[in-house]
């Protein structure tokens, strides 16, 4: 075993470097998305209703949660997952050309809204062990503290809220 201590330490240093590089790349991609589409914490960000837009919505959400609001990577991870589910539903089920993403923060809470022109309300369906689809709202229901949909004169807003520890 003599002499192997340096190998483990070297591996730990390279893992830390990889984590920093990944975080820097995610920051850069989030900043690019912010410059291209706008800041969902300041107003509605309109994205095309395409599967690729889920990636941009995730980048925007992560950037806002970590860089603007200063929350932990775990809060960002849950937010990003739930944003992805709501955006996926808007893209798959509404037939819209675009959707809006908006993020709000108030003391102790984060609220994320996805606006689309469909008045069809989301429905939480039972999930079975072998199901390969239909888990989106189940995840939203389990990971958020509250969620729902508000009908608008033209369309709806589907939203979720999570409690967060303010710094």
TrEMBL record:
Which keywords describe this protein according to UniProt? ATP-binding, Kinase, Nucleotide-binding, Serine/threonine-protein kinase, Transferase
MF term (GO), any: ATP binding
Output the superkingdom of the source species: Bacteria
InterPro entries from the xrefs?
Anti-sigma-factor_SerPK, HATPase_C_sf, HATPase_dom
Per UniProt, residues of the Histidine kinase/HSP90-like ATPase domain are 48-158
Matching entries from Pfam families are given as: HATPase_c_2
Q: What is this protein called?
A: ATP-binding protein
Source species of the chain: Streptomyces flavotricini
């Amino acid at each position: 075993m003599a002499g192997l201590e340096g190998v483990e330490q070297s591996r730990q240093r390279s893992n830390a470097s990889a984590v920093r590089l990944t975080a820097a790349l995610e920051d850069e991609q989030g900043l690019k998305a912010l410059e291209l589409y706008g800041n969902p914490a300041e107003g509605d960000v309109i994205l095309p209703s395409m599967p690729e837009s889920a990636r941009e919505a995730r980048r925007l959400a992560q950037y806002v949660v970590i860089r603007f609001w200063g929350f932990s990577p775990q809060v960002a991870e849950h937010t990003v997952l739930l944003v992805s589910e709501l955006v996926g539903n808007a893209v798959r089920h509404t037939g819209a050309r675009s959707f809006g993403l908006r993020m709000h923060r108030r003391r102790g809470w984060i609220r994320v809204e996805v606006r689309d022109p469909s008045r069809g309300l989301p429905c939480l369906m039972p999930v079975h062990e072998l199901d390969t689809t239909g888990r989106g709202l189940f995840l939203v229901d389990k990971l958020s503290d509250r969620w729902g949909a508000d009908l608008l004169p033209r369309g709806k807003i589907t939203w979720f809220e999570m409690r967060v520890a303010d710094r």
